[in-house]
Amino acid sequence: MSDDMDLDCSAVLADVWLILDGECDQATRDRLQHHMDHCSPCIEQYGLEEKLKSLLNRKCGGDKAPDTLRQRLTMEIRTTYTQVETRRVESGE
Q1: More confident position, 45 or 83
Q2: Which of 4, 19, 66, 83 has the fewest Cβ atoms within 10 angstroms?
Q3: Residue 62 CA to chain centroid, in angstroms?
Q4: Organism's domain of life (predicted)?
């Protein structure tokens, strides 16, 4: 199995917004995309996030959130995905 498939889904999903916002380098983008190409739950979640971003762009009309808000949201998203993934593993035992 390649390193791309060994990526933890919660880590991939936490970085989805880096792809959507064009804020990651090409190597990271390729690695995350390769994982999602072979992981249906991740690509499904990516699609939901992509639709959310599109909706926000249409409704917010280009308004830019303050950097402090963006940082707080990024941390909250990472924390939420980590907690959700941990609960899934624990409940599956």
Answers
A1: 45
A2: 66
A3: 21
A4: Bacteria
